[in-house]
Amino acid sequence: MTTTSTVLDPESELLAYRRELLGFCYRMLGSAFDADDAVQESMTRAWRSLEHFEGRAALRSWLYRIATNVCLDMLSSRSRRARPMDLSSSAWEPVEASLSARRPENTWLEPILDTQVLGSPSDPADVTVGRESVRLAFVAALQHLPPRQRAVLILRDVLRWKAEEVAELLESSVASVNSALQRARATVESRGVSEGQRYDPLDAEQQELLAQYVEAFESYNIDRFVELLREDATQNMPPYEMWLQGRRDIGAWMLGPGQHCIGSRLLPVVANGAPAFAQYRASGPGGEHQPWALHVLEVSGGQVAAITSFLDTRLFPLLGLPAHGEGDIGAAR
Question: What are the chain's domains?
Answer without folding.
Answer: 10-79+119-190 (1.20.140.160), 204-332 (3.10.450.50)
